[in-house]
Amino acid sequence: MKNFSRVLRIALQFRWTVAGTFGFSLLVAILWGGNIGALYPVIQVAFQGSSLQTWIDEEVDKSRDSIANYEETINKTQKQLEHAKPEDVPVLEHRLRDTEFDLMAEQKVLATQERVQPWIHRLLPNDPFGTVVAIVVCLVVATAVKGLFIFASSMCVARLEQKTMFELRRQFYHQALRLDLTAFGEERTSGMLSRFNTDIAYTTAGLKNLFGSALREPLKMIACLIGASLVSWRLLVFSLFLAPLVGYLIRRLAGSIKRANRRVMEEITQLYGVLTETFNGIQTVQAYTLEHNEKKKFHRVAKECFDKSMRISLYSSLTKPITETMGIAMISLALVAGAYLTLNQETHLFGIRICERPLDVPSLLVFYGFLIGATEPARKLSEIFNSIQAGLAASDRLIPLLDMKPSIQAPQNPRPLPERHREIRFEKVNFSYEKGSPILHEIDLSIRFGETIAIVGPNGCGKSTLAQMIPRFFDPDEGVVRFDDIDLREVALDDLRGRIGFVTQQSILFDDTVFNNILSGRLDASEAEVLAAAKRARAHRFISEQLTHGYETNVGSGGGRLSGGQRQRIALARAILRDPEFLILDEATSQIDLESEQLIHQALEEFARDRTVLMITHRLASLDLADRILVMEAGRVADFGTHEQLLSRCGLYQRLYSIHFQKSA
Asked: Is the pTM of this model over 0.90?
């Protein structure tokens, strides 16, 4: 409930919408109870065959006669007390108290009748049939007005649901952009998508039912219970004797439904994972004829989701029978007690005063009407019970992610970077993704401004991790990475990353035009600057000549409508437009054709002047661009020097060079 209360606080920010929801729901409840209460005068007319004017006049006369009789009885009893024997005093005092209580009750009834009497004479017809017609017309009009209020309430609830969903999605997306890469590795894309789609939908659906039926129906119940209490509040309390048992059973079911919903949401996350893997790897699935295996995997996860969903259905199906059975039991209890009191004209039950004056048949029937009117909202509440519990379970999965603190924290008082750095230093840097599995060990490294450094080594030796320390995608577990003498953790992330260009092995392009993809390198760049960057990246020619709409061509999701070489050149143009003082190339030419590689190398050779370049590569051609080469092995620096130095002294470099030389040959 703590997490769902966070969602409620978001919803309560929209004060006018919440106020409208509550106000219209309250009006619906008043009309609901008023329509049932309107049955009383109809029953009176039908039973007695006289007009309400005649009936109210007779009731006023009866009350006045009763008051006179009570006053006379009180006077007689007081006189008897003056001459009573000691043993008779308790009986007479008890009779006096009861009579005084009856007198007070009758005086209250008379006061109400006298207030209502002029309005009945003034507003209602004099004949019985006309009275019934007038009341029925009022009921129809009231029902129509109630329908308008229900419509207005539903629109307010829908608006509140959508605005809260919008705000949750906005916060989720902003939070996702703040999270570091480790969080995406732990949650996986499928987990993030499941929370964004399923959990937010369940949460806001629970909110919708909470401000909709869960607000309106209890108000209708309260209106009916108030109406019943006006007839006889003690009989109402007696009728609700079983209510605590109903509450206990519902509470037990609530816990079971919430846990079951949480398990279903976890299975939905697994389902998203299977779908994401299959769709992203559809070429591999079809190439290796893995369709049957993927079908079995999907069936297993979907079956788990089905089984857990059926458990929710089981618990939800129990809610309605329990509420209906207990509701009928309470009405039956009231029916027996009310019948006894009315038929015997009693005011006491088991020695306890239940009503102030004996109930007549019309009053008892209206009392039953109010109780039945209260059970209808209870039935509707049982139908939305599961949705609210699902919302609670979903919020327990959603809110912790919104509260997750990224491990890469921006400094409170960031230090400014110099206009041009002199060097980048790694000092005793250690790092691991998981405790006990170190990736980098005691890295000591200095890269001078303007140098082009190539990093080589076997797969999994920590090359990419080392490069990703510079834009602070990861922070060292131990040690420091510095620009000159400034710890990168003391620098604002925007300032740091604004100076870095990044091109990876599989450059991701956005589902947008070529122009906008290049422009994302620096959003305030002019059209001329975008075109110049494309020319420097050797991309202008193919964009202009080979793409149907030139720079306005949509590249598709992930740049899927372009070849690998075209994607890389657009990604390089994006980095060039940024005009970074530090460029990181992570296997940027490893999966492209020879012509594209040569074009990119030409672009890099020009662009690398007066800036620092860090290249992770296995290509011999890329090594020709490097001033020095860093050799890594098992997360450590094996050697660092020029190509000639490494060939003469580093056995690992000699083996790597020999292998790639043979492949190139």
From this structure: no
